[in-house]
Amino acid sequence: MRTFSHMKGLPVYEQKTGKIVGKISDICFTSHGKVQGFAVESKGWFARHRYLPFSAVQAVGTDGVIIKDAACLQPFSSFQTGYSLYSEHGIAGKPVITADGKKLGLLEDVYFHGQLGIIGGYEITDGFFADLTEGKKRIAAAPFTAGEEAIIVNTTM
To answer: Among 39, 56, 84, where does a domain finish?
Structure first.
């Protein structure tokens, strides 16, 4: 299991040609912890942001992501449901509150299983200085509701 921040910026390779078709820029997932796919930044003026469904990913490695064919990349507008960390439905930086009203901090990253396509947990920060003295928190994945102001995690602490 790894954090998405370690995956961000990895090149996406097309298996049949060996060409780099873009770089991973965001992760797309459901509120129940299922990875739907990734946002890929492509070269070129007209193909900047594309959506890569998780089902089209053959391998997620430490040095790159392998897909069978670049034709599996879709317009990012085809990603309509779910959330991402940074893009249109981005939730990074929002306060995380438990179902019993306890504020945990701000969502900073997600832990996920690259081969299974599931979110395993969330990385929470209390700010730069608190992270230096106390470290970042990690909470297990739980269903959540994300609104404009906060993320409500359906768990109690």
So the answer is: 84
| Shared domain check, 112 and 50 | no
Which domain range does residue 135 map to? Answer: 95-153
Q: Indicate if the pLDDT at residue 122 is higher than 80.
A: yes
31, two tokens: 């509120």
Report d(CA 92, CA 123) in Å as an integer: 10
Rounded to an integer, the average pLDDT of 140-154 is: 92
What's the pTM value of the predicted model, to 2 decimals?
0.87
In this structure, the number of other CB atoms found within 10 A of the CB of residue 72 comes to: 18
Domain count, the chain: 2
Same domain, 65 and 112: no
Length of the chain in residues, anyone?
157
- Position 134 scores a pLDDT of 78
At 16-53, the pLDDT tens digits run 999 999 999 999 999 999 999 999 998 766 657 899 99
Question: Exposure string (b/e) for 39-68, b if CB count within 10 Å is 16 or more?
Answer: bbebeeeeeebbbbbbebbeebeeeebebe
Q: Which residue's structure tokens are 């998780």?
A: 54
Last residue of a domain, one of 61, 84, 107: 84
